[in-house]
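User: Batch of two.

Assistant: Item 1 of 2:
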Amino acid sequence: MTFRGVLAASRLASQASTLSTVSPRVPSLALRGTAGAARAVHARCGLSTWKSLFTGADKQQQQQQQGQQGQQQQGQQQEGAEKPVSEGGAPDERDAKISELSKQLAEMQDRNVRLLAEAENVRHRAQTDVKNAKEFGIQKFSKDLLEVADILQMAVSSVPQTELANNEPLKGLYEGLVSTQKVLHSIFERNGLAKMNTIGEKFDPNHHEAQFQMEDPTKAPNTVSVEVRSGYLLNNRVVRAALVGVVKE
């Protein structure tokens, strides 16, 4: 019996078994005929041929199952490779998100730098204000004391030098005025208040206030020839400008 015959007989036996399971009402003669055909094939081919036949069929079925499993695994791998892109979003969306975050980071860094610079400026201004308050806090008081210094200077200048030798009371008064004037100027110097030297200096509108012009061949033009009232500096800042007479050009 050929291989095709054996295969046909096995198919018939399988169909008979299926029919008997699914539909019990199938005529028993057909089932018997099919079963008989299967027994005849078995008897003619022998047990070894029958086993080899079904062993080859099982192997073929296993190969088909393995091929289907391999295709399924390959499809799953392809889906896994495509899955991160679909879940994570397109590359353009990621680039846009990165660009947006980088822009926000740059803005925050620029804001922090500006805040630090502003804080440093505030600190510097505060230090400058404290320094100015310390150095020039007595400016108004010093300016008021300059009037006392002017009165003492006028009192000292009004004493005639020729009568000091013959008039002891006048001499004592004069010496007291001079001593008071020296003490006052020493107090001025300890507190940063200094008298300006103006005679012979070039006229400076920041330090001098011109009252008149005069001719003086002994001095250069546009220089101070006469000092009407002394000028003072408080820590190198002009507290009061000197009233002077300037040589004509």
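Item 2 of 2:
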Amino acid sequence: VNKTYSLVKVQTQNTVQLTKLTEVLCREKQRSDDLIYKLVPADIAKKLKNHITVTPEIFDSVSVLYADIVNFTLISSYHSATEVVNLLNYLFCLIDKLTDKYEAFKADTVGDAYVAVTGLPTCGSKATSESVTNIAHLALDMLGQIQNLDHENESMCEVKLRIGLATGPVSVGMIGMKIPKYCVFGETVNLATAMEERSQAMRILITNYTRNFLADTGIFET
């Protein structure tokens, strides 16, 4: 009887341990899935999870937002590295929430620059007019967030964005093996960058093609 009891006790303990290990594995898998879905569009994440090759694609009409901080080099020169990193992290986290709100994909961050796109079918296929509307709302809300930053914080007070928008064809695809990245390329990205470079502090400069779409909505003044 004692041997039987001991065997049952061991089996019970093993079952409990196995259950706990299974729960830990499920949590870790969920964390891994959540990370993948933050880094790439949902359709691409599903392909990666199923070990399906992600081939490059071309989309005819995608809206690109390119933004950066005005005088970032000057601001960085009289703040510590920690303060600069904290500033960028705080600002980009605010913008990340807005990209979710407007179904945009965070394509890249390079230094103080932030790149987002709307209209990629892999992000949830949208008609061009809706994707352009979403990117415009995103840009306006970004400026609104900057205006509402904590003005008691000196470094936050200095932050001003300059934004460029463009709409047109882009190429997309996974780049790299060690830290693969879903990248957006093409003349439309270059145009958005050029618009940003020619824009002014707390202003949004857009291409004529983007302007035509926005004018048709009757919502925006351009």
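The mean pLDDT is 86.
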